[in-house]
Specification:
eight-stranded mixed beta sheet, globular, Rossmann fold, 8 strands
């Protein structure tokens, strides 16, 4: 039995639409966590707002459902306070790239040892299908009836340009390969960013399962340590490459925190010196 299958009240009544790509991502994530033999008590899943961000309700682990776009700073704080935890931040393309765009940018720079999973269905699913930062030009939505004209955000190119330590893209319709990418992302020491294509079967009738099958391909013989080659691949479109684009090692955010230079005791386990605090104040 997978110990990450949620037993919380109401967890069996998942609110995602039948056929939603979120189901596959949830299943793959639970399988990876179980295969890594992690204990649910040692995993923290942090999300913002949106359909994808409901994930903490549907997985048996520590969960924190925070404000729209704020999963990354909360996840960074959780990891800083208790570095022994496996910390995963996740949400949709609107949640992470629009409301959370500023935190995404600085999360890439800080390199906290967390994993960021972005469910990219190229629309806002929770609020009925208006354009997100990754919606393709020309797509008509309830909020853009004449068609989207803004340039889509390229999160992978942004991450590689920011020298993120792990950058990948997966597709929920191909579970085995997505599972391996998530496994490597969680094991990577540093900020691991995975953009995951997943269809919104209710509000995006363009980027369907069939569309992704025809417009994506998996990287082969790609040098994951070559930043320039990774950026070149990230700029490709129609078809879009899938796989691990770029990874390297550098000091994590937690390793740079002054509080851990002389004492490795997690902040969550330290006692406050009230007398010293009063003197400081």
């Amino acid at each position: 039995m997978n110990t990450f299958v949620s037993t919380r009240p109401g967890s069996k009544d998942i609110s995602w639409c039948p056929g939603c790509g979120n189901f596959a991502i949830r299943n793959v994530l639970m399988e990876v966590l179980a295969d890594l033999e992690l204990d649910p008590v040692d995993v923290a899943l942090i999300s913002g707002i949106g359909q994808a961000a409901k994930m903490p309700h549907y997985i048996q682990a520590n969960g924190f459902h925070t404000l729209h776009g704020r999963a990354i700073p909360i996840a960074t704080g959780v990891k800083s306070a208790n570095p022994s935890l496996t910390v995963i931040a996740e949400g949709g393309d609107g949640d992470m790239y629009a409301e959370g765009g500023n935190h995404f940018l600085h999360g890439l720079r800080r390199n906290a040892d967390i994993t960021l999973l972005v469910h990219n269905n190229q629309v806002y699913g929770l609020t009925k299908g208006q354009a997100s930062p990754t919606t393709m030009i020309g797509m008509k939505t309830p909020a853009q009836p004449e068609g989207v004209f803004e340039e889509p955000l390229n999160p992978l190119a942004l991450a590689i340009a920011s020298n993120a330590s792990f950058v990948a893209r997966a597709y929920s319709g191909q579970a085995d390969k997505t599972k391996e990418i998530l496994r490597q992302a969680i094991l990577h020491r540093g900020f691991s960013f995975v953009d995951i294509f997943q269809p919104c079967v209710s509000f995006n009738k363009i980027n369907t399962y069939d569309w992704y099958e025809k417009n994506t391909y998996w990287l082969k013989d790609h040098d994951q340590g070559n930043r320039e080659a990774a950026l070149q691949k990230a700029l490709e479109a129609f078809p879009f490459p899938l796989g691990i684009f770029y990874q390297h090692q550098k000091k994590t955010f937690e390793e740079n925190i002054v509080a851990y230079r002389d004492d490795q005791t997690p902040l969550s386990q330290r006692r406050v010196n009230v007398e010293a605090l009063h003197k400081y104040l």
